[in-house]
Write a structure and sequence with these properties.
35% of the residues lie in helices and 28% in strands. Strands 1, 2, 3, 4, 5, 6 and 7 form a 7-stranded antiparallel beta sheet that branches. Helix 1 packs antiparallel against helix 2 and helix 2 runs antiparallel to helix 5.
Length: 163
């Protein structure tokens, strides 16, 4: 069973007054990678009008590297943006062909080798503020209810950063 206690994230969120958001986002990504056994995890934030998301931290668990700065626009991925904002979760084991995510196939999934995706919305006062994303590159991944619940819990914890 993967490490599921979110210890890095809990520790840094408790010390958020003296800890940078970058450090906390890295902890969230590492905890998510371990907690749901994901190959890539990331934290994205919405702009004010929900027209785009920007990657604040992306962790490649296979390579053990961090990146950030990618931007995805609602105009380019309208089906996904609608799904994540309205449903709060996108569970896409077959990400390249599923309705909510297939528009990412050529520009994002294929170049990054991604087959499966599990995303959960970050909210503050019921307003979308970001997304926690988990991706699998080792083949099709059926994300189960415990994976969804893990993301729901860490998303709630992470939302405290936006107070």
């Amino acid at each position: 069973m993967p490490h599921r206690n979110m210890q890095r994230t809990k520790s840094l969120v408790a010390k958020r007054a003296t800890t940078s958001k970058d450090e906390i986002f890295q902890a969230v990504c590492e905890d998510c990678a371990e907690g749901v056994d994901a190959d890539r995890t990331s934290v994205w934030t919405f702009d004010r009008d929900l027209t785009q998301i920007e990657c604040q931290c992306c962790y490649d668990a296979l390579e053990k590297t961090f990146t950030k700065g990618a931007v995805l626009k609602r105009d380019d991925f309208p089906t996904y943006f609608k799904a994540i904002v309205e449903d709060n979760i996108v569970n896409a084991p077959h990400a390249r062909t599923q309705q909510a995510t297939r528009e990412f196939t050529e520009p994002y999934f294929v170049p990054n080798g991604i087959h499966s995706l599990l995303d959960f919305i970050l909210q503050k006062d019921l307003v979308p503020i970001g997304i926690i994303c988990c991706e699998n590159r080792r083949g099709i991944r059926d994300w189960d209810k415990s994976n969804e619940e893990y993301l729901r819990t860490i998303a709630t914890l992470t939302s405290f950063l936006f107070s």
